[in-house]
Amino acid sequence: MDSIISIKNLFKSYESGFKALNDINLEIKRGEIFALLGPNGAGKTTLISIICGIVNPSQGTITADGHDVIRDYRAARSRIGLVPQELTTDAFESVWATVRFSRGLFGKAPNDAYLEKLLKQLSLWDKRNSKMRELSGGMKRRVMIAKALSHEPEILFLDEPTAGVDVELRRDMWEMVRELRERGVTILLTTHYIEEAEEMADRIGVINGGQIILVEEKTALMQKLGKKHLQVQLQQPITELPDSLQSFNLEQSKDGYSLTYSFDVKQEDNGIAALLEKLASANLHVKDLHSSESSLEEIFVNLVKS
Predict the structure, then answer these.
(1) How far apart are CA 77 and CA 41, in angstroms?
(2) Of 36, 155, 198, 243, which has the fewest beta carbons less than 10 angstroms from its beta carbon?
(3) Going by DSSP bridges, is the β-strand pair 3-13/59-64 parallel, antiparallel, or unpaired?
(4) Whole-model pTM?
């Protein structure tokens, strides 16, 4: 699969000396959903702003669908739809006028049928004649998404798109994201709702301190860095671990009825058989076993800490 966004040796420094981005190299594949994760101040919004032509880089090159975002800005930007964190709209314009004007800004011929379908998908059709100042924050967020999609872009940036919005909008938006990917639209999202990245993304990138510290297929990342947990429910509580179990990575519950054993998913010998054997030898009778895997959130926290 070829790259639709190519970022090479990208730096961004400010006059104060602060380095927002430090040698970013990243390829976004055509038609994928790429989730960029990172703590506040990591450089996520700065990176998106540079790709979209809102902020100038200090050094480096970026192409969007083969067009340099600096030298061929107009062509590059026409390929991109952006849903920013901030809600910026004309308070006295109607929803319909706002979205229709946004399409015209990119030189697209009028297509009211497409815009009608878009507003209906976002549950905005009944609000099409309402002024922007009359809308709730969640409805304004829907309009921002409609604006970003009004010119039928091939690349869609979603910068914390569901922060502070209602559950219904979040569900509607992710349904639309899936439909867009099926139509071949490439989507790059940043989010604090890590479970959304885990559910939606094809690949995950982690940025911290202005540097990309990891890019990985989501499934491979879970397998490589994730841990599995085996929860052992005992028939009788224990007050302390027997000496024979001290060598295992066990966490004891406060009530003494449960032991949690953690191990790497990539280990061939996970040690479970030996653990169960030692439990039996110590006359600890097992009532139930339950296994689970690390979430992407746990993996992300561990990566940023390291």
Answers:
(1) 25
(2) 243
(3) antiparallel
(4) 0.75
